[in-house]
Amino acid sequence: MQKRGQVTLFVIVGIIVVLGIVLFTNFRYEIVDFFGDLTQGETVIAEQLQPVQNHIQSCLEDVTLEGVDLLASQGGYINFPEDKYENDRRNKFSNVLNVFPGVDVAYWFYEDVSGNQISQIPTIQIMEEELEEYIAESFEKCVSTSDLYRSQGYDIEFSEGGRTNVDIGKENVRVEFRRKVTAEYKGVGDSWSKHEVDVSVPLGNVYESAIDVMNKENKELWLENATMNYVLLYGLPHSNVEFTCSPKIWNKKEIASDLQKYLAVNVPFYKVKDSDYDSYYYEEPLFVWDLNKQYQDTKFIFEYNSEWPFELDIDPSQGDSVISRPLPGEIPFMEFCVNYENFFYDIKYPILMTVKKEDLEFNFANLVVIRRDKPRRPMSEEKANYVDYCESGGREIDVSVLAYEDNTDTAVSLGDADVFFNCVKFNCYIGKTSSNGRLREEFPVCGNGEIEIMKEGYSGKTATLTTFNDGPSSVGLILKKINILNYSVEVLDEVDGSLSAPRKLMGDEVVLLEVARFNEDKVEQGFAGIYPDDETQIELVADVYKVKATLIKETPITMPEKKIEKCKCPEVLGLCLCGKEEIVIPATNLDSAMLGGAQFTWTINRADLNSDEIVFYVINKGVPNTYEKLSENFDLGKVMIGHISEVKPKFK
After folding, report:
1. What pLDDT band is residue 615 in, cutting at 50, 70 and 90?
2. Which of 134, 181, 358, 512 falls 20 to 30 Å from 66 in CA-CA distance?
3. Are 458 and 479 a contacting pair, CB within 8 Å?
């Protein structure tokens, strides 16, 4: 029994010793700091060692201010959160704004490549942790610069590691850094571990002001509404009615360029009400943003640069062209010459916002997002967690992507193709195919979802995909290579029902050319351009297309006066029972007139695309001199009767 008691005692002692070692290992800094603090107050640093201590304090303050400036300039981050998507043509915005080479700022709101709305606002705790890590790493600068004192006879030693605690206040940042320093000079030595600085900088204040701006934007979407005002105020094609007898066409790239110019001019004039700004702009309601709060001695700066990423799409459109057509119809004449514009805009671009107080500037970026003229959803109304759905997994699918090589019938594996999966309102990025054209990944569960494959230089491809357990475990798609060919348009004059030899366009003639691709019995948006004004290149793949070409004479013509009879009341079974009256359509001057054109379905084979050029043909029915002739020229179906084979494009 005595031996058993001794064994038990030894076991208990052993447990206590092991527990003590574990506690010391895990809490050694706290233990050392505790006893260090007890003795620190009793120990006075010798006067001979004050220069070393002052140097460390000054260096720590410099490091802290450097960290604060870097943190504030980058949107509250020193190390940016990782963006799981590569920054490429599909993900041009990423999760940070590249202000200019070498300078990045975090987006506090952005939309990722899958269309998910992401809030990326750092908390005070995150900013404190960022500063703690930065100061701990940058303190090595203080260690290395201490060599100056060593050259003067000081013996200085720094312990390994260290621990930092940062407290961000509204008007100050307090730093407590723990790292033991041992110094000796002319026989006088001492050591200390605690280094404290309290820098006067309004980091917490400008951060709270930035939060106010972002919260207000997320709720009211002021930036999106201001953007749509410019679309309307500057006369970009949107909603309008014009009396003209010819189609109107705009280049989407030129519209985007114009809108970017308007943003670059106007955004810098945005001001926050009751902040520090020139009161001259207070009377401009389009420029003043009311956050319902006072901001004494605080400036709010808004910036936009046309070199930053920008996206614009307009519906309806044909490739890079936006077209408004006159409404065709029968007499009376006005139906021919009314052009209705009704376009919807999708816009995405960044705005850099800066909150400045004293000498501190706090930057953060926001992505302005507009869908079909409407601002993005307010963040407070965001119900679905897109990211959770896209990353939820569910069914492993083997994806195989091929492409036809050099316009032949040989299909080869296509690597580096982006794979997306769309289910109702969720748009998920799955990944890229490897060099063998394969990707095996988990897809979210969805019935009748859509897999989408994209790669630069190839026409995108979609297919229906069900990812339930009873659905397919693999899917294969073939992409078509996009070929760029030069094109020209020639005219076939109709004389007595026959077509003349092809000729070049005259100086006052232009052709509106539209080439739209059929895809599973649906017509996709394709190419549209004015020949010969626009670029004379067209992108094509081997497929079936709908071609429509309108020949327009841009010389004014005069339509003579015309008298017509019209029933005074609605006709019954084609009979006028109440008598007729004469209506006079006065002579009318038209700024241009439609001469004819062409309209047909066109099949392109892969071998055709090995050519260098395409020639399109249009039929000239002559200058209309009556309303009836004008109506005939509008009807391209009748214009084409008997001439379909003669107007088919030719490859050269």
Report:
1. very high
2. 181
3. yes
Q: Which pLDDT does position 384 carry in this prediction? A: 39
Contacts 24+ apart (CB under 8 A), 587-591: 587/558, 587/559, 587/560, 587/561, 588/333, 588/558, 588/559, 589/556, 589/557, 589/558, 589/559, 590/245, 590/337, 590/556, 590/557, 590/558, 590/559, 591/244, 591/245, 591/246, 591/554, 591/556
Q: What distance in Å separates the CA atoms of residue 594 and residue 585, rounded to the nearest whole number?
A: 20
- What whole-number distance in Å separates Cα of residue 280 and Cα of residue 297? 17
Q: Is the pLDDT of residue 46 over 80?
A: no
Q: What is the pLDDT of residues 73-126, one digit of tens each?
A: 999 999 998 886 666 566 788 899 999 999 999 999 998 877 778 889 999 999
- CATH number of 483-556+591-651, picked from 2.30.30, 3.40.50, 2.60.40, 1.10.260: 2.60.40
Domain assignments of the chain as residue spans, ordered by start: 46-81+120-201, 204-381, 386-481, 483-556+591-651
Residue 368 · residue 312 · CB < 8 Å? no
* Residues β-bridged to residue 564: 583
CA 489 – CA 513 distance, rounded (Å): 9
CATH of the domain spanning 386-481, picked from 2.60.40.3700, 3.40.50.2300, 3.30.470.20, 3.40.30.10? 2.60.40.3700
Q: For 496, left (φ over 0), alpha (ψ -120 to 50), or beta?
A: left
Separation of alpha carbons 642 and 621, rounded Å: 14
Compute CA distances 153 → 54, 75, 145, 193, 591, whole Å: 17, 44, 14, 22, 93
